Amino acid sequence: MVDRPPYVHRRWPNYSAPKLIFWASIFAALILFIILHSPPPDFSSDRRTTTTWGSLNWERRVQTSARTRSHSPSHSAGPGHLSVLVTGAAGFVGSHVSMALKRRGDGVVGLDNFNNYYDPSLKRARQKLLERAGVFVVEGDINDTALLNKLFDIVAFTHVMHLAAQAGVRYAMKNPSSYVHSNIAGLVSLFEVCKSANPQPAVVWASSSSVYGLNTKVPFAEKDRTDQPASLYAATKKAGEEIAHTYNHIYGLSITGLRFFTVYGPWGRPDMAYFFFTKDILKGKPIPIFEAPDDHGSVARDFTYIDDIVKGCVAAIDTAEKSTGSGGKKTGTAQLRVFNLGNTSPVPVTKLVSILENLLKKKAKKNVLPMPRNGDVLFTHANISYAKKELHYKPETDLQTGLKKFVDWYLDYYGSDKKSS
Ligand SMILES: NC(=O)c1ccc[n+]([C@@H]2O[C@H](COP(=O)([O-])OP(=O)(O)OC[C@H]3O[C@@H](n4cnc5c(N)ncnc54)[C@H](O)[C@@H]3O)[C@@H](O)[C@H]2O)c1
Ligand SMILES: *[C@@H]1O[C@H](CO)[C@@H](O)[C@H](O)[C@H]1NC(C)=O
Ligand SMILES: *[C@@H]1O[C@H](CO)[C@@H](O)[C@H](O)[C@H]1NC(C)=O
């Protein structure tokens, strides 16, 4: 409560006419109205990024983070000599990829807006790990072209690993514009800055297995149709692939799209089934198990362990050819690729639950429901022969082994000090 200023209570001198009192009260009421109705200070990401980035100290941190381990001059920009901008670096996949690149000696600068789609404290914890490893995560939005341009002014990035996005299939019905903001507008802003950069970086970015939508021909191969998305999320990823085509065609940007299949593992995403099943089984809370219609088999996913995905991402970076454009103009045909990164071994969700029950030594309370029509597809299964051939991609972790690692992490992270997920 704001204290009423003293002058409101003061009696007006005798000579004041009732009229004056009347206008004074109107005036006071007006002031009060303005105070009560003025918007609260704006702490939105836009405002904050413009004030937090750009200082000399900030620039120095970006430069240091982008430095490769080996200082010997190398003209072959091979592993250990790259400088990579990783968007979505505080996210699940982004934090793992950043760590892997840094570990082998590449320079890595992260970018993330730390939005609250899921518990941002998990993103902050990943950021802390990265900072300890020498990766600075810039706080900002991929749709902020001024910020992106500034980053490219400071560092001649050889590669962009673009993992920032609004993820999640069901949330698209609640907040559709967040998908347009990050997966469409943000992607275009990023490509705009990349095509204008000199030299242009090669871009590797995350599409999704969800682009296969309602397809029934399995396993899903890259050449299969992708024009029947079942969610707005899937539609924005499909749009991203088409947008990538135009930036490659017009500006000579080298672009590789990776269609991830249900990635899981330590430091994973709390909105995904394996994660909240774990949480709810431990709490004794019922978990929803979706059933396919009778004639459609079971609901199954091609679960892919994070370390396998990371290897695929790094291999995509290492096999990416240089962009051909210069000063925003194409000078020759550039590489354009899209790969499935899956595990080629779909597992029914019921099996996922029984593995978790064994690992957690606790029975799940199951709430069996018909599959709602909210964007999820029944079945995913990757054909990975193209990634095998070009990236030497070879998934090595089965679901049992991977979930064990996830559960160990989960119990360690949430077990001791009661952080709530
Ligand atoms: N995890 C999966 O199973 C899976 C499957 C298919 C595709 N993908 C894709 O892989 C990528 C990484 O996914 P993830 O599982 O690590 O998700 P995530 O949500 O953990 O990571 C994304 C990160 O990007 C950040 N971000 C979102 N919008 C941003 C914006 N406008 N500006 C800056 N930062 C922003 C978020 O804060 C988050 O930290 C995403 O593009 C996602 O769509 C993931
Ligand atoms: C993205 O940024 C551009 C300016 O660079 C702005 O015009 C646009 O409104 C932004 N889009 C979204 C969806 O936030
Ligand atoms: C997988 O895709 C390749 C093309 O990349 C195709 O030749 C092969 O037949 C497919 N395999 C299956 C099992 O469908």
Automatic annotation (TrEMBL):
It catalyses: UDP-alpha-D-glucuronate = UDP-alpha-D-galacturonate. SUPFAM superfamilies: NAD(P)-binding Rossmann-fold domains. It is a multi-pass membrane protein. It is found in: Golgi apparatus, Golgi stack membrane. Its EC number is 5.1.3.6. GO terms for cellular component: Golgi cisterna membrane. Keywords: Isomerase, Membrane, NAD, Transmembrane, Transmembrane helix. The chain crosses the membrane at residues 20-38. One of its GO terms (molecular function) is UDP-glucuronate 4-epimerase activity. Homodimer. Belongs to the NAD(P)-dependent epimerase/dehydratase family. This is UDP-glucuronate 4-epimerase. The gene is LOC105160575.
